[in-house]
Model the fold of this input.
Amino acid sequence: MMRWQTPMVGVCVLFLAAVPAFSQRATLGIDVGQTSDKFGGLSRTSSAVGVLDGEIIVLQSPDKEHGADVVAGTELRFPVNTTNHANEYAFYGGVSFRIKPALSLGFHAQVHQLDAPPSVVDGQIFNRARFRVLELPGFLQYKFGPDKRAFVRAEGGLEFSPKLKPPANATLPNPNFEHGYFMRGVVGYNFGKWYVKGTYENRYFKFTNNIGNPLGLYNWRTDMMTAGVGFVF
Done:
């Protein structure tokens, strides 16, 4: 079994088991598309990618127009080409506020792990540290159209200083983090028990150019586009 399969299967089992026990509403989405990554001055590489995400309303407000719900969820990404692209796992909890029936906003506290891939530079392999990042993303979602079934969603946030776990054979110190961010846009349509959506995301990590970041090889930009379906429980 591949490295990403074990945590993915475990999360799916826990998610499905928790739905009837704790949740008044839950979603489970499956998306496919393409991720494109660029490290420093190296050439951009692309790969097909699959994304599995789920969210549970842990505590639901009885006020359907202006209430606040406590939510928890996860997102797993697994590129086809793991040689040049990262497996990623994110787990979060947060609050979603309904400003009015068609408009909601909120924030999450999220732990995000990225298994950064190696690169080949001048015939030598450059192994990167594993990233573990604390994120506080915010989101804004608007529903529109007949019966408010269509929706658009904007998400984004700044990256905090990641905790880096160097590879076993590391000979260089960890790089010094400067800044990072991500932005995501989602459009979709809810059919009731299931929905469709399309997603675009841009993400960037910037590190100081020093001995721990030779040639800027830790500087990492990702663009990802996916489309998929989801189910409402």
